[in-house]
Write a structure and sequence with these properties.
- By secondary structure, this protein is of the alpha+beta class.
- The protein has one domain.
- It contains six helices and four strands, in the order αααααβββαβ.
- Strand 2 and strand 3 form a beta hairpin.
- The longest helix is centred in the first third of the chain and has 20 residues.
């Protein structure tokens, strides 16, 4: 049986898929989605490095001329992250890293935030992490309930 939270998450993922389907009519978008999925599958290997080394590999160093618009790129990145369900990385980290990598290629000066919070599951303290993006110091397409209780522990690029 699904919990209410789990069911809500599955419905959001289904909505994401339905929203992205029209984008997949275009061959270029299907090719980009496949590239994003390969990038997503490679993330665990990249993250075996130190954070500065990994992030220097994830951070694009120049704009890419033939990406679709920001909204399409974001939707495809979200879909790629959701489809790579077998990844050992959490969805928020996959989504944030794929968005970061491709949207910065469009010239968006996104900042990747890593946060932590203390929770009490089964009366046991537990540390939980989350990753999200900000643009101009505001969460970038991230619901407030996903980040508001987290303390930022690292921002990339630093500054």
């Amino acid at each position: 049986m699904f919990s209410l939270s789990s069911l809500s998450t599955r419905i959001r993922h289904l909505f994401l898929l339905v929203r992205a389907l029209p984008l997949l009519r275009h061959r270029e978008n299907r090719i980009l989605l496949a590239e994003m999925r390969r990038f997503c599958r490679h993330l665990p290997v990249l993250l075996e490095n130190s954070i500065p080394e990994a992030m220097s590999m994830v951070t694009p160093h120049e704009k890419r001329p033939f990406l679709p618009d920001e909204t399409t790129t974001r939707h495809l990145a979200d879909l790629a992250a959701v489809l790579e369900r077998k990844s050992p990385l959490g969805l928020c980290l996959r989504r944030s890293l794929v968005r970061y990598h491709y949207l910065r290629q469009l010239g968006l000066p996104l900042i990747l935030r890593f946060g932590a919070k203390l929770t009490h599951a089964n009366q046991q303290p537990s540390l939980t992490g989350h990753a999200w993006l900000t643009l101009n110091n505001r969460p970038y397409f991230e619901p407030e309930e996903n980040w508001r209780e987290f303390t930022v522990t690292l921002s990339w690029p630093p500054g």
